[in-house]
Amino acid sequence: MTRLSQSPELQGWALILGASSGFGGAASLALAEAGMHIFGVHLDRKATMPNVERIVTGIKQTGREAIFFNVNASDPEKRREVLDQAEKILADRGEPSSVKVVLHSLAFGTLKPFLAPSPKDAITQAQMDMTLDVMAHSLIYWVQDLVMRQLMVRGGRVYAMTSSGGTRVWSGYGAVSAAKASLESHIRQLAMELAPLGITANAIRAGVTDTPALRKIPGNHEIIQTAQKINPSGRLTTPEDIAAALVVLSRPETYWMTGNVIGIDGGEDVVGFCISPFAAAGLEGPPPA
C-alpha cells in the first residue's frame, strides 16, 4: 500500500500529443494548474496559432514551463526530434526521467465511407492506414521511445482519448471508429507490458463533446442534439470535464488502476446513446422500397 500524498500538487512534466485544442488544450492548462510543466505537440497553421499562443500563455501564468512543438506527431523523424530536444532540456535542468504523464489526443483522420457510388468517393488504403497510424498506432511508438530513453519510469501515467464511436456506427466514421477500437486494444496491451515497470495505461472515453474534431463529422448537429437530450446530467461533456478527471487520475494513489476504458460522460453511456439509424447511415429517411 502507499500512503496518501500530503501535497495537492502534481510534479514533473506532461507530454500532450494534440495540445492545441479540445481535450489536449484543456488538459495542458489543467495539469499546469495542478503543478506540471508541459511539453505540447500540435500541428497548426497560421490561422489557428492564436489559440496555441493562448494555451501557452495560460500555462506560463501558472508559473510552469510550456515548451510546444508544431510538428506532425505521427512522423517518426519528428517524434525523434521532439524527444531529442525534450531529453536535452530535462538533462540540462537536472530532471531526467521526469515525464510523468502522456496524453494521446490526436484527432486527424479520413471521414470517407467504405463504399460509395463512385470509387473516388470511397476510402482508400492510404487513407485508412493514415487514420489508424495517427489516431491509434502512434501511441505505441511514443510510449516505446519514452520508455527506452527512460524519460518515463515508475509512477508514469499513459492516457489515450477514445469515444463510444469505437463500438458504434455513423456515416463516414468507419476509419475513425476502427482507430478508436484499436487504440483501446493498444491500451490493454500496454497496460500489461508496462505494469512491471510501474507505469499505468488507461483509455479515457469522453462523452459527446463539442470540439473542432466533432464539428468535422457529417451530421454532427444531430449527435450534439441527441447527446444534450439524453444525458442524465443535462448537458454535453466539456474538455474541462476531461481535464479535471485527468488531474485526479494522475495522482500517485491511482497506481493500481490500469488497462481500463474509463467513461467520463455524466452518465451518457449508461442511458444508451442512440440516434436514428437513417441519420447514422447519412440518410434523411428510409430508402424507397
Automatic annotation (TrEMBL):
Signal peptide feature range: none
Keywords of this protein's UniProt record, alphabetized? Answer: Oxidoreductase
The UniProt GO MF terms for this protein read: oxidoreductase activity
Quote the InterPro entries the UniProt record gives. NAD(P)-bd_dom_sf, SDR_DHRS6-like, SDR_fam
The answer to whether keyword Chloroplast applies is no
> Is this entry keyworded Oxidoreductase?
yes
For this chain, the family text in UniProt reads: Belongs to the short-chain dehydrogenases/reductases (SDR) family.
Q: What is this protein's record name?
A: Short-chain dehydrogenase/reductase SDR
Which organism does this sequence originate in?
Answer: Methylomirabilis oxygeniifera
